[in-house]
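Issue: ligand-bound run for magnesium ion - logging full I/O for the record.

Environment: standard queue, default settings, no custom constraints.

Inputs:
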Amino acid sequence: MSESKEFLTGLYRDLLTVRLFEERQIEIYALGKVPGHIHSGVGEEAPYAGVFATRKEGDYFKITHRPIGAAAILGMPLKTMFAEVMGKETGNARGRGGVLHLADKSKGMIGFSGTLGCDAGVADGAALSIQMAGTDNVVYTFFGDGTANRGPVYEAMNLAAVWQLPVLFVCNNNQFAISTYASWSSRVEHPAADRAAGYGMPSRAVDGTDVLAVYEAAKELVAGIRAGNGPAVLECRTYRWRGHFEGDQMKYRDAAVTEKWTREKDCVANFGRSLVADGVATEEELSAIRASIAAEIDEAVAFAEASPEPKPEEILQGLYVD
Ligand SMILES: Cc1ncc(C[n+]2csc(CCOP(=O)(O)OP(=O)(O)O)c2C)c(N)n1
Ligand SMILES: [Mg+2]
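Outputs:
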C-alpha cells in the first residue's frame, strides 16, 4: 500500500466508526429509544469512508438515510448524532429532525431531503456557489440505486454537466430499493455510472466494499473536478446487509446470498486484515482503535440518554427560519 500508515489507519478508523455507530443505532432502536424508524447501513461504510478521504476544507456534503454514521467522518460529534437520533434537545436539530437530518453547515453538511433524488439539485446549487466563488471545492452528493432512477437526479446531472459544475455524484448501489432488486428497475448494470456518458460526464464503477478501490476511483474523479473539468459519477456496488428498515422480514430475498455477502465482503474486516497482512498495523493497534471508538460511543449514548426531550410548548421552535 503506497499511502502512509497515518492515512490508512485513519481510513480504518472512519470505516469502523460508521460501523459501530450503525450497530449501536440498531441496539438502541430495538430498546425503543429511537422515535420513528431507522435504515441500517451496516456493511455499506466503504463508499463514504473512501470518498470522503478525498475531501478538503470548503467542500460540501450530502449524505443519505443510509448509513447516517457517515456524518461522524465529517467531524460531527457522536454525542450530537446520538442525541438527534433519540430526539433530544442536544441534537443538531434539537431532536426535531431525527435519523434523517444529521447536518451541520459548519462542517459543510448541507442536509438531506426525505424526498429522494431532490438532493442532487441542491448539490448543483451549492456547486454553483463554488463556481461563482472561483475556488476548487467540490460538492459530494450521495444517492442509492433506486434513487438513481429518479427524474430529479437526471436533471441535476444534466445541468451540472452543461454548466460544468463541481459535483461528484456518488451512487451507493446496495442492490435494493426497499424490496425491489436494482436489476428490476434498470436495464443497465450500473444505474448511475452507465448513464453518465449520456450527459457527457466521466464515471467509474467500483467494488464498494473495497475502501481503497473506492478511494482511488474517487481521487481520480475528484482531481478532474477540482481542475475545472466539471462533474463526474462514481458508483459503488455494495449489498444491504439488513432489511430496508428494522423489522423487514426480507422474504423477497435469498438469505444464503445475504450470508455470503456479509461473510466474504465485509469492508471493515477485509480492510483490517489487509492492513495487518501488509504490515501497516498490528492486530493490537486495530483493537485499540476499536476500543477507543466503542468508549466514545458509550459516552455519546449516555450523554444522549441523559439529555432533555424537547418541551411540548417549544416543539415548533426551529422548524422554520425565524
Ligand atoms: C421520492 C421518494 N419516493 C419514495 C420514497 C420512499 N423510500 C424511502 S427509502 C426508499 C428506497 C430507496 O432506495 P435506494 O435509493 O436504493 O436507497 P437505499 O434505501 O437502498 O439506501 C424509498 C422508495 C422516498 N423517500 N422518496
Ligand atoms: Mg439501494
